[in-house]
Inverse folding.
């Protein structure tokens, strides 16, 4: 391992399960991140900073003013611009040695093959149609998925299609019913959930994910955390 690389990851190398071998495994990994919004903004800098070597980033949205409180990859001058291109630029600034491949598109049955050949997928979307589309395809292709969701002050994280074989449809056969005020989100809760998703992604790539077949329920309003076996 080259000296500059060793210096950059000096605080990561001593961690349990990491070491030079772990950093090299991350360096050789490829993950797909679907969604460059709130959760994507929280997840992506952590993956890039920890040197997950190749990231396929999928999103078809542009930045809006209402995004800015929780989508921290973007600023006021970015309103109206494509999220994937901006995100790729910012991420390459964080770590120019990571390969970020921006794909401006809405994931559909016609183009979902873009996630083939990845080691792991992170579902950072906020709509049920895309989540179930990813879940069905991951079932067919045996692609592990780190899934997260945030609503108001609460969030959930799970790993689906892992060793235990749990699926999103198996846990939530029907979309959750939206209530009045749906869409309200506490920005720090997004960062909290995103950091757990990034941790699970890194853990999966290193062989020590904790949420395979488990659901972590988090509530920032009361700082409560519960884990459920699925």
């Amino acid at each position: 391992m080259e000296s500059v690389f060793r210096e950059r990851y000096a605080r990561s190398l001593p961690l349990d399960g990491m070491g030079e071998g772990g950093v090299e495994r991350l360096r050789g990994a490829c993950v797909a991140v679907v969604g460059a919004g709130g959760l994507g903004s929280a997840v992506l800098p952590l993956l890039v900073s920890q040197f997950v070597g190749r990231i396929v980033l999928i999103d078809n949205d542009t930045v809006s003013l209402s995004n800015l409180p929780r989508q921290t990859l973007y600023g006021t001058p970015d309103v109206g611009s494509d999220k994937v291109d901006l995100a790729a630029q910012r991420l390459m600034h964080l770590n120019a040695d990571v390969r970020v491949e921006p794909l401006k598109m809405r994931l559909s049955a016609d183009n979902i093959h873009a996630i083939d050949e990845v080691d792991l997928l992170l579902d950072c979307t906020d709509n049920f149609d895309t989540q179930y589309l990813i879940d069905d395809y991951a079932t067919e292709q045996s692609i592990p998925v780190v899934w997260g969701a945030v609503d108001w002050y609460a969030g959930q994280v799970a790993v689906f299609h892992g060793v235990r074989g749990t699926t999103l449809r198996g846990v939530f056969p029907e979309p959750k019913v939206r209530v009045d005020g749906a869409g309200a989100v506490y920005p720090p809760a997004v960062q909290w959930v995103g950091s757990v998703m990034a941790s699970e992604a890194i853990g999966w790539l290193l062989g020590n994910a904790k949420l395979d077949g488990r659901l972590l329920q988090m509530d920032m309003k009361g700082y409560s955390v519960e884990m459920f076996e699925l």
Helices lie at 3-8, 19-27, 38-49, 83-94, 128-141, 168-171, 187-206.
